[in-house]
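GNAT family N-acetyltransferase, Catenulispora pinistramenti. Tokens?
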Amino acid sequence: MTSPTPDEDLLAIFDTRMRATAEPDEPGARVEHADGVRRQIGAHPTDWHGVLYSDLDATTADAAIQAQIAHFRTLGTDFEWKHYRHDQPADLAQRLQAAGFVADDPETLFVAEITQLSGAGQPGAGLSEALPDGISLRAVTTEADADLVGEASEAAFGSGGDRARDRVLARLADDPETVWTWLAMAGDQPVSAARMLIHPGTGFASLWGGGTAPQWRGRGIYRALVARRMRVAAGLGCEYLQVDATDMSRPILERLGFRALSVTTPYEFRV
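Tokens:
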């Protein structure tokens, strides 16, 4: 096993490959570079719209913020500025709030090198897909499965089911031959759903979702879903896994070998 990349170098790799040169991560979306930022415009009103990355300083930040507000007002869509704790200028978060953005809950940026999760020379051999009795994992491949993903999101988070379902349907329509989402099922009842995005040319796969219905938490379902997605990503040649994690997921990811590199906060603007 090779030595791990130092945290500061790993964060620089993430910023360069996943933010500064980001490609669209949803079917039909486009990424634009303007006014010192890189922003994504979704193809549909329910898609994610917002700023992925900024290269600003104290002399350019306020003008760039106002330019993005004006742009999205022209489009008539709300948007998010995805802020990271290490972004410049150091007071960028305060500038966003002063311009009318509202902060949502922060999450920790975790990145893992797949080779550092290895065992016996096989990527990911140290991660177990073992599941509690009564739970099975299955791939999401049909419209009916998309309905179950929506149910799982509602059960885990209390909201977001429609958006989760729509996202799966868009992905199935764009690439029906590739599995990007998995369900954890208790019989015919969905208790968790998790998706993965592959970012071509970056070496990264990003992991999303994985929230679990309250009565099934603490039994290894989230860990198994991470392991399943990691194995698929490794098989596709990915080098890194990225997760934006809540405090609930943080200890699990740390035990698996993921490293906390920054904190990301979504700043929402309603047009």
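The first strand starts at residue 30 and ends at 34.
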